[in-house]
Amino acid sequence: HFLLTLLIPFIAALWLTEAVEIYTSGAVEAVNGTDVRLKCTFSSFAPVGNALTVTWNFRPRDGGPEQFVFYYHVDPFQPMSGRFKDRVVWDGNPERYDVSIILWKLQFDDNGTYTCQVKNPPDVDGLVGAIRLSVVHTVQFSEIYFLALAIGSACALMVIIVIVVVLFQHFRKKRWAERAHKVVAIKL
Question: What are the Ig-like domain coordinates in residue numbering (predicted)?
Answer without folding.
Answer: 9-134
